[in-house]
Amino acid sequence: MSSKEKKKGALQEKLQLLRSVTHSHAVNKTSIIVDASKYIMELKQKVDACSQDVVEDSSVTMQVTVETLEKGFLINVLSEKSWPGLLVSILEAFEELGLEVLDANVSCSDTFRLEAVGGENQAESVDAQMVRQAVLQAIKKCTEE
């Protein structure tokens, strides 16, 4: 087998591997590469979405997620560490947004965990991103003091 044939075979093998990893049904090189590029962009968006959910304060990792419910939000806050006044700060942020806490489970001994269901009691529209930003600001305010 000549060197040229070996290189062509290796390229075909790599393209086949790329097709299988990216779940591409393309046949020609250009289409396989385009599919791979799209796949990489999708993965990048997923990573960006995941990284938005994790907030790092020096050595402490904190996760904040907000899900939209039919009439309100499910808010989860997890932290490796608890700070004095953190719960109060988050509840004040809910109040400023006009969210009424309908149900909550909290643990704030060594670590901090909050799972709350908040319902809107104001006419103004509040979305999940606004709630998340308000919670993050409340955390930042509390942890910087």
Feature tags:
145 residues; five-stranded antiparallel sheet
Q: What is the topology?
A:
Elements: H1 3-22, H2 29-52, E1 54-57, E2 60-69, E3 72-79, H3 86-97, E4 99-107, E5 112-120, H4 128-144
Antiparallel strand pairs: 1-2, 2-3, 3-5, 4-5
Helix pairs in contact: 1-2, 3-4
For the termini, the CA-CA separation is: 71 Å
> What global shape is seen?
elongated
Question: Which strand order does the major sheet show?
Answer: 1-2-3-5-4
Q: How many strand units? A: 5
Largest sheet: 5 strands, antiparallel
Helix count equals 4
- SS class: alpha+beta
Strand content: 25-35%
Put the structure in a nutshell.
The chain is an alpha+beta fold. It has helices spanning 3-22, 29-52, 86-97, 128-144; strands at 54-57, 60-69, 72-79, 99-107, 112-120.
Give a structural overview.
α1 crosses α2 and α3 (86-97) packs antiparallel against α4 (128-144). The chain is 50% helix and 28% strand. The chain is of the alpha+beta class and 145 residues long. It has a five-stranded antiparallel β-sheet with strand order 1-2-3-5-4. The mean pLDDT is 82.
